């Protein structure tokens, strides 16, 4: 028998789930959210949009394919979505102590310990997910036996984008056309998807006034937390709307473009985090299966007259993207860059590049 310390997940409503620790042995607090994808834990753990969150995975086994090596290719990580793990902790039904995959160079447990991130298994994640679905995402903490208690922590009360954005202007790739990428906590596959299409990407911090840079198109990345906190980016996007050159946004980018257009956002009860979210393209019968990770949504009813919904979620009817009726501005709430998840909507990068 493997020696593991007991650990519990305590929700802010007092519900307790008992389990065992397999990661770093420390107590942590954050917002508890669930993801129903079957694979992709290396990508999810390093996705900056999970900053401050305790990630519950409903697929019953975690760790069975280990972790790929940390390697860089063309200035971005080859297999990860950022430089380090962003989740506060990860919760699983079962942890596989044996892993096997041709790319794996260590176990998930080793990686979590290395990055000081707790992991807990032996939790009935389906019961936990049902609870979160009924009562909504809530704050929670993982208390590892022997480690001291911690207070609850609400990540949505602070500007997480400022925490995860790059500090300096960086250039990726080369090409005739220049895309300014506002880094709100960008997933590296967005950079890969852009540079692969032969454009020069100038990646700027979230609050950088990029209007001084001559650019052909503006890209607004994904990012963690509450879009209401990201006021400075919205101010700069308003200037870009007035400039009129093509704009595209993903996830937080959809929310910030909507805000710059004059629309509002709100918090969903438990968010969309999975690989199988169906979205319909407005005005068509075309439906796409998409990868998603968001807790907030754009309120369609607040979109001004010259804007319209571009995609609609087929499960709950919420907004999944917007576009300007006459100008080259559009965005998606889901992840066309996938990583992880289906790549069916990667063509949206082509639509953007063709506008430049
Ligand atoms: N992946 C993202 O960009 C998420 C956007 C925002 N933090 C949300 O949860 O809705």
TrEMBL record:
Alphabetically ordered keywords of this record: Amino-acid biosynthesis, Arginine biosynthesis, ATP-binding, Glutamine amidotransferase, Ligase, Nucleotide-binding, Pyrimidine biosynthesis
Q: Which residues form a coiled coil?
A: none
Q: What is its EC number?
A: 6.3.5.5
Which sites are catalytic?
251, 335, 337
Is ATP-binding given among the entry's keywords? yes
SMART domains to which the protein is assigned, alphabetical: CPSase_sm_chain
| Domain Carbamoyl-phosphate synthase small subunit N-terminal: start-end pairs | 5-143
Going by the record, the broad EC class of this enzyme is: ligase
Q: What catalytic activity does the UniProt entry give for this protein?
A: hydrogencarbonate + L-glutamine + 2 ATP + H2O = carbamoyl phosphate + L-glutamate + 2 ADP + phosphate + 2 H(+); L-glutamine + H2O = L-glutamate + NH4(+)
Q: Which InterPro entries match?
A: Anth_synth/Amidotransfase, CarbamoylP_synth_ssu, CarbamoylP_synth_ssu_N, CarbP_synth_ssu_N_sf, Class_I_gatase-like, CPSase_GATase1, GATASE
What Pfam families does the entry give?
CPSase_sm_chain (PF00988), GATase (PF00117)
The pathway that the record names for this protein is: Amino-acid biosynthesis; L-arginine biosynthesis; carbamoyl phosphate from bicarbonate: step 1/1; Pyrimidine metabolism; UMP biosynthesis via de novo pathway; (S)-dihydroorotate from bicarbonate: step 1/3
Recorded GO MF terms: carbamoyl-phosphate synthase (glutamine-hydrolyzing) activity
Amino-acid positions noted as binding L-glutamine in the UniProt annotation, renumbered to this chain: 49, 223, 225, 252, 255, 293, 295-296
Annotated region CPSase: the residues are 1-177
| Oligomer status and interactors | Composed of two chains; the small (or glutamine) chain promotes the hydrolysis of glutamine to ammonia, which is used by the large (or ammonia) chain to synthesize carbamoyl phosphate. Tetramer of heterodimers (alpha,beta)4.
User: Which protein family is it in?
Assistant: Belongs to the CarA family.
Q: Which HAMAP family match?
A: CPSase_S_chain
Function as written in the Swiss-Prot or TrEMBL entry: Small subunit of the glutamine-dependent carbamoyl phosphate synthetase (CPSase). CPSase catalyzes the formation of carbamoyl phosphate from the ammonia moiety of glutamine, carbonate, and phosphate donated by ATP, constituting the first step of 2 biosynthetic pathways, one leading to arginine and/or urea and the other to pyrimidine nucleotides. The small subunit (glutamine amidotransferase) binds and cleaves glutamine to supply the large subunit with the substrate ammonia.
Please give the name of this protein: Carbamoyl phosphate synthase small chain
Q: What is the lineage of its organism?
A: Bacteria, Pseudomonadati, Bacteroidota, Bacteroidia, Bacteroidales
Question: What gene is it encoded by?
Answer: carA
